[in-house]
Amino acid sequence: MSIEIKNITKDFGDTRALDHVGLSLGENRIYGLLGNNGAGKSTLLSILTGRQYPTEGTITVDGEPIINNDAALGKLFLVAEQNLFPDDMKVKKAFDTAALFYPEFDRAYAEQLAERFGLDRKKKIQSLSTGYASIFRLILGLSANTPYLMFDEPVLGLDAQHRDLFYRVLMEKYAEHPCTILLSTHLIAEAANLIEQTIIIRNGKILKDCSSEELMADAYSVAGPARLVDTYLWGKHVLSSNVLGGLKTACVQGQPEELPEGLEYSGINLQDYFISLMEEEDRQ
Domain ABC transporter: where (predicted)? Predict the structure, then answer.
């Protein structure tokens, strides 16, 4: 079971939003889709779930093309900012309606999540606050029980407590009912521990597609007096650096060598790696 994305390109007039994107999303794995604003994340998710058509390229779900294929598209659920239900529909009725379109929709589980998040099922969708509108959509996605579940900025408008609850519920769900999850987010530090495979996109092109463990193992940070750091960095692949007073810190691609006295080495987290990679791209 997999989603195969081959040579996907999307043009909006003279603007190329996606440029020959190729990805393979395997079974029962959590993917992180990372990129700056305008990188093409939302466009890719929209095409992937049949909400937009590509200019060229193909997408298959378990070997079946998604274009005009309700069976293939029925295996996917995208949680995005757009509400696909009538605004005057009540939350409870929306749960009932979702069960008609997704045969595996777990109505009882949706009710349980509504209790945990404090979502009033008697309210009309249009009367929900930004945060609770996001929670409503998250519950739909988590309850749909599709083999492929995608999130586009899932915690939009959520306070810290509800964001933490969402991440915990997502991991509970993944542990009990494994599926393929594609998570697009700007809050990298919050989601980093969930992401098994990292996909980084910039200007419509894929820059990185590898396991998060592999990504983190191939970069490190070095810090110390600026003169010593500059000497150490000679000939190395420097992603980013900054200077504060007489001290310098740099993010380096590759494996660390033995450090001279006076310098300190540390690992790098996913957010710092992403920021450093974007800074390198900005310089090019």
Answer: 3-228
- The dihedral over CA atoms of 247, 249, 255, 258, expressed in degrees to the nearest 10, equals 10
pLDDT tens profile 246-255: 999 999 999 8
Q: Which CATH architecture describes the domain 3-203?
A: 3-Layer(aba) Sandwich (3.40)
238 φ, ψ to 5°? -90, 120
pTM: 0.91
- Reported for 15-24, long-range contacts at CB under 8 A and 24+ positions apart, including other chains, are 16/204, 17/43, 17/204, 18/43, 18/44, 18/47, 18/54, 18/204, 19/203, 19/204, 19/205, 20/57, 20/205, 21/57, 21/201, 21/204, 21/205, 21/206, 22/206, 23/199, 23/206, 23/209
d(C-alpha 28, C-alpha 51), whole Å? 24
Tokens of 74: 């029925």
